[in-house]
């Protein structure tokens, strides 16, 4: 091929590549704006800037027993109900939309290894990351990093120690992770999920940390509500290796409320709340087969 023709071909291919890149950038931005209103008058849009919920954030409110020590911290993407006495969260709540999940699974998503555990100095009782060292327990995310990879701030804040509880690795990287993966997948078909996660406290919990004052819960719960499908499900799992499939730990919201004393979804009409919270049928949710 002559040099002139090669040069023309080069410029044609370069133009095509630039056009494709521009289309992908526009398509991703348009998709992003389908669920988020990031553009403020006179300001340039940025990833995750001024995130606005696609629904009623009152659903994230949890009524806790008065006896329970609590500081409510509202981060960008998660709400943490923090207990300074136990030095772990009472509960962590967040919404997960199909747009968030799609962005979190994209090639442009945030990379987990770029983020480190940090103390939130504005929250009393929040431990340092190193207080878990050599304890035999992992730093278990309540709002998992896989759900936060859509945004830098959301990802950084989910690595704050206010979102962390001591979990055995056999639990954290076992059936508990499979529930987290299932919820991540379910958000794609549900459109929007409301998720609550936290420990179940008991009187004789072990302690870890520099002063042996970080509580080690024996069990954890996860509550999932789908507003568009008007259904919910919950899970209660022990903080240890589990011989059975994650589906065997499904239960009702009523059961979690009885174990914790918390009141979830209290902004719903009573008749709707009562029906949703009393039912559990794992078969109502899309099947998910985790990699073992």
How would you sum up this structure, described in words?
This protein has helices at residues 3-33, 98-104, 152-158, 169-172, 175-190, 253-260, 270-278, and strands at 71-74, 78-83, 88-97, 138-141, 164-167, 192-200, 206-208, 214-216, 219-226, 231-238, 250-251. The strands form 3 sheets. A 7-stranded antiparallel beta sheet has the order 1-2-3-6-9-10-11, with helices on both faces. The protein has a two-stranded antiparallel ribbon with strand order 4-5. The protein is an alpha+beta fold and 292 residues long. Helix 2 (98-104) crosses helix 5. 28% of the residues lie in helices and 21% in strands. The protein folds into 2 domains: 1-34; 57-284, Extracellular Endonuclease, subunit A (Extracellular Endonuclease, Chain A, 3-Layer(aba) Sandwich). Residues 20-52 have low confidence and may be disordered.
């Amino acid at each position: 091929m002559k040099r002139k023709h090669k040069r023309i071909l080069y410029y044609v291919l370069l133009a095509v590549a630039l056009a494709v890149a521009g289309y992908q950038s526009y398509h991703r931005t348009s998709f992003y704006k389908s669920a988020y209103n990031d553009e403020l008058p006179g300001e340039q849009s940025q990833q995750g800037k001024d995130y606005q919920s696609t629904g009623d954030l009152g659903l994230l409110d949890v009524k806790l027993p008065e006896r329970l020590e609590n500081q409510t911290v509202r981060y960008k993407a998660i709400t943490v109900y923090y207990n300074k006495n136990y030095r772990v969260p009472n509960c962590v709540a967040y919404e997960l939309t199909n747009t968030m999940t799609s962005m979190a699974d994209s090639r442009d998503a945030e990379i987990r290894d770029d983020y480190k555990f940090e103390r939130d100095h504005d929250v009393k009782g929040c431990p340092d990351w190193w207080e878990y060292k050599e304890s035999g327990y992992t730093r278990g995310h309540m709002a998992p990093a896989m759900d936060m990879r859509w945004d830098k701030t959301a990802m950084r804040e989910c690595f704050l120690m206010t979102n962390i509880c001591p979990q055995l690795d056999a639990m954290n990287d076992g059936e508990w992770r499979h529930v987290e993966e299932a919820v991540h997948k379910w958000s794609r078909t549900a459109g929007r999920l409301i998720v609550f996660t936290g420990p179940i406290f008991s009187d004789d919990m072990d302690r870890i940390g520099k002063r042996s004052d970080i509580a080690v819960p024996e069990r954890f719960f996860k509550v999932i509500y789908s507003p568009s499908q008007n259904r919910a499900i919950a899970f209660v799992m022990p903080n240890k290796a589990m011989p059975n499939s994650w589906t065997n730990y499904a239960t009702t919201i009523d059961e979690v409320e009885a174990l914790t004393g918390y009141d979830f979804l209290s902004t719903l009409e009573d008749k709707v709340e009562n029906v949703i919270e009393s039912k559990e049928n794992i078969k109502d949710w899309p099947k998910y087969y985790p990699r073992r």
